[in-house]
Amino acid sequence: MSDMPVREAVGARRARRALSSEAIREDELMAMLEAMRLSPSCNNNQPWNAIAVRGDEALASLKECLPRGNGWAKASPLIIAVCSRDDDDCLLSDRRDYHLFDCGLAVGEMMLAATGMGIIAHPIAGYDPLKAKEALSIPGEHILITLVVCGRPGSDSSMLSEKQLLAERERPARKPWRENFFADRWGSPLVADAESVDTGEN
Ligand SMILES: Cc1cc2nc3c(=O)[nH]c(=O)nc-3n(C[C@H](O)[C@H](O)[C@H](O)COP(=O)(O)O)c2cc1C
């Protein structure tokens, strides 16, 4: 496991798309999955199910579920499919159905663990969910929330669109702070703009 500090991993994590097809080692995969296992969840319900897809046949049939825009993912030697169902986690008042949230947390932890090992773990929503569920024998009541496309950084960017090429070089912009970070009440800006924020990084 890498000793990359968490804040460094947060900054280094990127949804890169130029992937090498070099295999991800067993110990690396297990470290990524262990990060998911240790993730917090409502009532410790652990609603996540993860299918590590790396066998030639299984990978090939899963890759058939990708649209052209996600053609870059075809180079990946490992795709982790994450699914859950609402009954397997807290269902609380005011639509607080926690299974998607808890799976998101677990995937977040896994992405940071991957980043620490120099592995790109890129979650996608662009796939045919019913076809992918069938390919992976996922029960119908489960939601296939994401496919996490994994791989080491690669040099072949021929599959990438202009926009994707730009995103390889520069992190896509975030909304201005004032749009979605508030102080004391909804709508009250926490900071006026990004330039005035000192995160202590420099
Ligand atoms: C739920 C989710 C779905 C995504 N779906 C796709 C996708 O289908 N294809 C893709 O290329 N990137 C996908 N992404 C990656 C985002 O585009 C990327 O995280 C965002 O542009 C910010 O870039 P960064 O992660 O490098 O900071 C997805 C990310 C998330 C969290």
Blueprint of the fold:
Layout: H1 6-12, H2 26-37, E1 49-53, H3 56-63, E2 78-84, E3 91-92, E4 96-97, H4 99-116, E5 120-124, H5 129-135, E6 143-151, H6 162-169, H7 177-180
Bound molecules: flavin mononucleotide.
Flavin mononucleotide binds next to strand 5.
Structure description:
Helix content is 32%, strand content 15%. The chain is α+β, with helices and mostly antiparallel strands. The protein folds into 2 domains: 6-153, NADH Oxidase, CATH 3.40.109.10; 175-202, no CATH class. Strands 1-2-6-5 form a 4-stranded antiparallel sheet, with helices on both faces. The protein has a two-stranded antiparallel ribbon with strand order 3-4. Strand 3 (91-92) and strand 4 (96-97) form a beta hairpin. The radius of gyration is 18 Å and the shape is globular. The chain starts with 5 loop residues before the first helix and ends in a 22-residue tail after the last helix. The structure holds flavin mononucleotide. Flavin mononucleotide is lined by residues 14-15, 17, 70, 123-126, 146, 171-172.
